[in-house]
TrEMBL record:
Region forming the signal peptide: none
Organism: Desulforamulus aquiferis
This protein's UniProt keywords: Hydrolase, Metal-binding, Metalloprotease, Protease, Zinc
NCBIfam families named in the record: PRK00024.1, radc
Protein name: DNA repair protein RadC
PROSITE patterns reported for this sequence: MPN, UPF0758
Length: 227
């Protein structure tokens, strides 16, 4: 099978540009290897060299066990490219060997409260935060989206979902505090939440709840049937 020279491909079809636009998950093993190799030779493109490596070792498991000397025997793969491939594979091995991170799982509003109450309850202005969750409702990250005034916080859907998309969140839980200590939601709180839910539906990121923090007490808009 013949693979094109990368510079002859339309920009949107080149592996590096596709990775930037679509993410690494959209690329094949050959595409990813071509990015690592960067350049081809006078007679073979980087894609063809990558295909030759996969063809020689059949799969990534065998490739990960190959030595630099074995890689260097492939036509067009010298010591430099062999080292580049081995370095990338070694990084993958080290990542796979890291102990799994213990992430907090959110099962109910009380789980959210235990995470944020002590920090938010005594603040003198409104902090609007988001818990970003993966598909298992584990907390990926906790992000401050905006800092408001004594009794109001301004949040634009763009700011929330820009962060959520960048962190590959499957869902979010909204959190903000009321400096007055009374967590009763205002009409503005409910309206903002519904607007963020609607924006999330378009993007494909669910808003699971909105928790309002007061002085050692909280209210879940979902539990109250307000969203």
């Amino acid at each position: 099978m013949s693979y094109p020279v990368l510079r002859e491909l339309p920009p949107e079809q080149r592996p590096r540009e596709r990775m930037i636009k679509e993410g690494s998950g959209s690329l094949s093993d050959i595409d990813l290897l071509a990015i690592i190799l960067r350049t081809g030779t006078a007679k073979a493109s980087a894609l063809e060299l990558a295909a030759g490596i996969i063809g020689r070792f059949r799969d990534l498991r065998n490739l990960s066990q190959a030595t630099i000397e074995e890689l260097s025997t492939i036509k067009g793969i010298g010591a430099v490219k062999a080292v580049q491939v081995k370095a990338a594979l070694e990084l993958g091995k080290r990542l796979a060997s890291l102990p799994s991170e213990d992430r907090t799982v959110i099962r109910c509003p009380e789980d959210v409260c235990s995470l944020v109450m002590e920090e938010l309850r005594d603040l003198d202005r409104e902090f609007f935060q988001a818990l970003l969750l993966n598909t298992k409702n584990q907390v990926i990250s906790r992000e401050t989206i905006s800092i408001g005034t004594l009794n109001a916080s301004m949040v634009h859907p763009r700011e929330l979902y820009k962060i959520a998309i960048r962190r590959s969140a499957a869902a979010v839980i909204l959190v903000h505090n009321h400096p007055s200590g009374d967590p009763t939601p205002s009409r503005e709180d409910i309206s903002l939440t519904k607007r963020l839910i609607e924006a999330g539906e378009i993007i494909g990121i669910d808003v699971l709840d909105h928790i309002i923090i007061g002085d050692n007490k909280f209210i879940s808009l979902k539990s109250k049937g307000l969203i």
